[in-house]
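Apologies for my clumsy wording, but can you show me some protein sequence, whichever is easiest, together with the matching structure tokens, please?
=====
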Amino acid sequence: MIGRGLQSGLQSVGRVSSRAISGIPTNAGRTPPPLEQFDPLNPGEWQLGAAGKLLPRLPEGTRVGKLVMGKYGLYDPKLRKRVAAYSAGLDAGKKSEAATPFDAAMTN
């Protein structure tokens, strides 16, 4: 039983999925500027990633898992939709507690 699971696990170790790598821009031949010269307020074609690495900026609308790349970074489309509805409710003169049906249900 254990040997059988181990064999199937070892068979899948050598497989590499190319789906995840195909959508990443490589900026082939280009190197990011040194971290000291990088301006986070005007990043250009580079963005600051995890651990302070400079990564190529993804095009707007690129999906990364459940997130979507926007103008200023990754966002959750469902949350963006709720924020837009909340702003529209406030602009219409509703109280913040009843700006959307979700907020109204939470206060009652």
